[in-house]
Amino acid sequence: MFKTVQHKVFSFDVEWIPDPLAAEVLTGVKHAPPHSLPSAFRSLWDYGGASEENPQPYIKTVLCRVVSIAGILRETNAAGEPELKLISLPSDPSDPDKAHEKRILQSFFRAVGRSKPQIVGYNSANADVPILMQRAIVHGISSSGFGQRPDKPWEGVDYFSQGGDSHVDLAAILGKYKNTPSLHEIASISGIPGKLGVSGDSVGEMWLQGKLKEIVDYNEFDAFTTHLVWARMARFADLFTAEQYEQEQSLVRELLETEIAGGKAHLNSFLIEWDRLLEINQRI
């Protein structure tokens, strides 16, 4: 269990797809969009051991391309009150420059490397952080401070330490091996929206169809889910009082309503599902 709720907390999630350029390098399927893209994807799945029973196996993250990062940034203001902000990359999915993987990675590392928040993810130690690091190495870019490690864990932020609170992987805390719930499972039965009509397996097909905005929308759902599960676990760890936990939920609801009013209509389905699950959860 994590021991602290730090001054800045960033609950985040990353979405990725098979990288067509990796397919060209490793399997010889040339990257000539758009017609070769399905073939490139299939070649990487074959490279990863595809079978009739499992046509889309898990592909090593280094062979994938980051297409979206979303998170909830929690900061304590001068008055000691927490404030929440939704952050999404790319900020404009219709802009090819902002949607480029290298630009997404650089924006993430600059922001996190500069402000050094406590980062929170779900299976992030095994997946999200490794893919961000691996793909940054592929592009030959700096981590802008994200990868810097202090001599001793207590002397600074260390996102790669196994024992500190700089990087909180909720999945690793909740269980081991077959006892580890999926984010959808732990969230849904706790009264928190999990997957809403889309899963990680759908992201590749959505990208092939040019639906990057929809991928970012889905990514934002997971960011809100991750933050709400984190808050519930902070309550379990006695890092939040009952009143503070209720306040955190209110802040999330207010952020959702603000974002919806600002044009993110897709988040309305999150609120609707949240209310439905809360009603069921009250009967447990």
Report on the biggest sheet. 5 strands, mixed
Structural class: alpha/beta
The CATH architecture designation is 2-Layer Sandwich
What is the total tally of β strands? Answer: 5
Number of domains in the coordinates?
1
**What string gives the helices and strands in order?**
EHHEEHHEHEHHHHHH
Q: Identify low-pLDDT runs.
A: none
User: Which CATH class applies here?
Assistant: Alpha Beta
What can you see in these coordinates?
The protein is an alpha/beta fold. 46% of the residues lie in helices and 14% in strands. The chain contains eleven helices and five strands. The chain has a five-stranded mixed β-sheet with strand order 3-2-1-4-5, sandwiched between helices. The radius of gyration is 19 Å and the shape is globular.
Protein traits:
alpha/beta; 284 residues; Nucleotidyltransferase, domain 5
Topology:
Elements lengths: L7 E11 L1 H8 L9 H11 L16 E13 L5 E8 L6 H4 L1 H15 L2 E4 L2 H16 L27 E3 H5 L8 H6 L14 H6 L3 H25 L5 H20 L6 H14 L3
Helix pairs in contact: 1-2, 9-10
